[in-house]
């Protein structure tokens, strides 16, 4: 058996793996019905950790304050900001009774550690249901809290929401950020739907305060700079206690990075936490990325060699059709359907960037959260 024949059979196996993954995403999430039934409103504490976010707070806090929800408080954490974030928070606090300030001073042992600041904010909160959003995010509707809270019950202690990014026309970086965000959401929503939740995003997620303290909060990974959202979920989430919220009114929208350098630094921090996931999640996620990479490497190689070209093209087409259907239904559900037209290009671009980030993280560790 020649080398090209071996490569062809290896490619067929890789395509099969990819098809299985995307079909799993399709049936676990892509075809999942969106439930919008609201329930009785329970007291909520909205937790916002802000470090040098004065302008974002001025823009986004009014949108959170006008939520059609009672009762709720907003715990604003000033994480040792060097701008006028503290002054902005104090001004909001004087005008609104439901705002609570937590001013975190620089602590040498926890410098640059968002988890330390979040822990102080959680301790200061008054309610058992905690909803997390970043300072640079805005709710997609005035019913954001109502939709998120509707997923809680006696059994459900964690709710995973979707945090999207605002769109910018004619920007490759913006399209790439949104594509990666949807691809990631498709995976963590699918895994949660299949009974094996592994992460959430701090831009839009919620859990019960008692769950946090019963599991010792971030103590198990306090020394790791990133992972205040995904590592905690990976540690405590399971089939019984986790639900997802995917109604469009429950989304949050963030400002995306405007330069490749700052986005790459952000992704380096995010990706660096994956090695601390549970073994089963590391294996499944690693296999998915590896099969993505090998699909392109082997596919391009076999096309270049011209070996069994009809079968190679057929396998490539099969993988892309399944991927486009799965990703397309997800993108439609997450209100960004136009990205489907650029999927092959963005898919290849993202894989190359993820490989470069993986190599960079092997060479040096990413820095603190801001």
TrEMBL record:
The chain crosses the membrane at residues 6-30, 283-303, 309-327, 339-363. Residues 45-164 form the Glycosyltransferase 2-like domain. GO terms for molecular function: glycosyltransferase activity. It comes from Winogradskyella flava. Keywords: Glycosyltransferase, Membrane, Transferase, Transmembrane, Transmembrane helix. InterPro entries: Glyco_trans_2-like (IPR001173), Nucleotide-diphossugar_trans (IPR029044). Belongs to the glycosyltransferase 2 family. The keyword Glycosyltransferase applies. Pfam families: Glycos_transf_2. This is Glycosyltransferase. Coiled coil: none annotated.
């Amino acid at each position: 058996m020649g080398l090209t024949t071996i490569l062809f059979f290896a490619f067929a196996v890789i395509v099969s793996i990819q098809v299985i993954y995307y079909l799993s995403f399709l049936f676990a999430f892509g075809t999942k019905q969106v439930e919008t039934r609201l329930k009785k409103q329970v007291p909520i504490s909205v937790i916002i950790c802000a470090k040098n976010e004065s302008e974002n707070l001025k823009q986004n806090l009014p949108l959170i304050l006008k939520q059609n929800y009672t009762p709720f408080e907003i715990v604003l954490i000033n994480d040792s900001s060097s701008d006028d974030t503290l002054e902005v928070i104090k001004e909001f606090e004087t005008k609104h009774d439901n705002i609570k300030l937590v001013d975190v001073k620089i602590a040498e042992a926890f410098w640059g550690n968002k988890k330390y600041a979040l822990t102080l904010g959680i301790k200061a909160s008054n309610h058992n249901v905690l909803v997390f959003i970043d300072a640079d995010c805005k709710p997609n509707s005035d019913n954001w809290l109502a939709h998120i809270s509707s997923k809680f019950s006696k059994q459900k202690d964690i709710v995973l929401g979707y945090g999207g990014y605002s769109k910018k026309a004619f920007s490759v970086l913006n399209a790439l950020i949104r594509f990666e965000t949807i691809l990631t959401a498709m995976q963590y929503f699918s895994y949660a739907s299949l009974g094996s939740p592994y992460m959430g995003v701090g831009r839009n997620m919620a859990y019960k305060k008692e769950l946090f303290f019963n599991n010792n909060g971030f103590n198990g990974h306090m020394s790791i700079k990133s992972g205040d959202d995904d590592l905690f979920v990976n540690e405590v989430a399971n089939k019984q206690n986790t639900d997802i919220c995917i109604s469009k009114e429950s989304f949050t929208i963030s400002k995306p990075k405007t330069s490749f350098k700052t986005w790459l630094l952000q992704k380096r921090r995010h990706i660096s936490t994956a090695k601390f996931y549970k073994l089963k999640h590391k294996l499944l996620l690693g296999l998915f990325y590896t099969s993505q990479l090998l699909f392109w490497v082997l596919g391009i190689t076999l096309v270049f060699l011209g070996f069994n070209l009809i079968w190679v093209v057929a396998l490539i087409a099969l993988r892309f059709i399944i991927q486009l259907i799965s990703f397309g239904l997800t993108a439609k559900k997450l209100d960004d359907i136009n990205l489907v037209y650029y999927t092959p290009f963005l898919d290849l671009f993202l894989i190359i960037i993820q490989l470069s980030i993986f190599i960079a993280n092997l060479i040096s560790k990413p820095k603190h959260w801001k």
